[in-house]
Amino acid sequence: QAQLAESGGGLVQPGGSLRLSCAASGFTFSSYAMxxxxxxxxxxRELVATISSGGITNYADSVKGRFAISRDNVKGTVFLQMNxxxxxxxxxxxxxxxxxxxxxxxGQGTQVTVSS
Length: 116
Hints:
mainly beta; seven-stranded mixed beta sheet; four-stranded antiparallel beta sheet; 11 strands; about 0% helix; about 50% strand
């Protein structure tokens, strides 16, 4: 069973940092690009960052310079380091493995709340 499991969310003050993890199992992790998405109440799920199987990264403009996506293919884990967090970053964060006809894989999400 292919699955993803996010962890590392929590409550943090503005300007603080969090590191999210997403552990993959049941598929060939190293062969796929991985993405982080987030969804705030009343908003659509949005793409935050992606990393290719070779480690090339892309970021949404809203997080560029503050967030960093990385992966460990040996551990089968993708990370999202979030620095200088803002209240606008508050959302449920999901990791995703796009697999096309094999079916995209989504984690269950981890809550990130940025508040004073």
